[in-house]
Amino acid sequence: MRAGTRTPEDIKVKGQLGPRALRVLIRVQELVSARGSYDYVEIGSFLGRSLQSHLQDADCRRALSIDLRPDTTPDERGAMDIYQGITADDMIAGLAELCSADDLIKLETVTDTSDILRDMEADQFDLAFIDGEHTHTAAFRDFLNVLGVIRPNGVICFDDTTLVLTGIRNALTVLETRGVPHAFAFGRGGITVVALGKEAQAFIDALGEGMTIPEGRIERRTRRRMQEVALREAKPHLIAEDPKVRDKAIAALRADGWVVEPASTNEPA
Ligand SMILES: C[S@@+](CC[C@H](N)C(=O)[O-])C[C@H]1O[C@@H](n2cnc3c(N)ncnc32)[C@H](O)[C@@H]1O
Prior knowledge:
The protein has helices spanning 19-33, 52-55, 88-96, 101-105, 136-147, 165-178, 200-206, 215-233, 243-255, and strands at 38-43, 60-66, 107-110, 125-130, 150-158, 182-187, 192-196, 212-213. The protein folds into two domains: 8-214, Vaccinia Virus protein VP39 (Rossmann fold, 3-Layer(aba) Sandwich); 217-255, no CATH class. α5 runs parallel beside α6 (165-178) and α8 packs parallel to α9. The protein is of the alpha/beta class. The model is unreliable at 262-269 (pLDDT under 50). The chain has nine helices and eight strands. The protein has an eight-stranded mixed sheet with strand order 3-2-1-4-5-7-6-8, sandwiched between helices. Bound molecules: S-adenosylmethionine (SAM).
């Protein structure tokens, strides 16, 4: 299957990427493959939902899947064990039901963190997707590792913008301070798209209508989401600055049996 003929419904592998996110990722893939053959790397594959369309794309030469597959994954929402027990072989077996042998030849899997990219030479990939550990720190670290191997006009996407926005902001700051030409957009479905190189703005503009979300809305959504996390996971440091919101949040935490003072204590009472 060539890019341009694909829809979210074509992606049959199970996972958490919803149709909006898939639509943005497919559009990015179309734009990258329109330039010719490309190499893809992703951090965080789980069952391979984000890999399927690249493996099936005639323009994709190589797809590197990096997934640590830990029992417990740190996350801004609190540790997650929902990915537990799925191996790279399980993922490959699932993909083999949908992809041809020729598709699967492109796939390389590594059970490790993105730090392994530091051992690689520069200029290896045209497109990267960061969807591993959903913490600000890990998203930022994954970005720095990807930056060492992405080609000068490459594209780097992040999943779950509102969870790792601080990591994404740090990434953009690195590009600015290093003077790397780039442009970015907050895509629908939680996908942030960062394009590099002289054509970066043209790439972002080409994403098209209905694919992106204004920055102000992302900021508001992020604040709301962090507020929810603060309340649910008892992370007082995430509670908003607004005194009214903060007092309400702290009262809710206390009612839930959490000790929120001193601020560093977040163990249940
Ligand atoms: C949200 S899932 C990935 C979803 C996948 N992209 C999809 O389309 O369904 C996150 C994955 O990141 C992996 N992971 C957790 N911590 C990681 C780390 N430090 N480095 C790389 N992968 C990690 C987990 O094992 C899990 O499979």
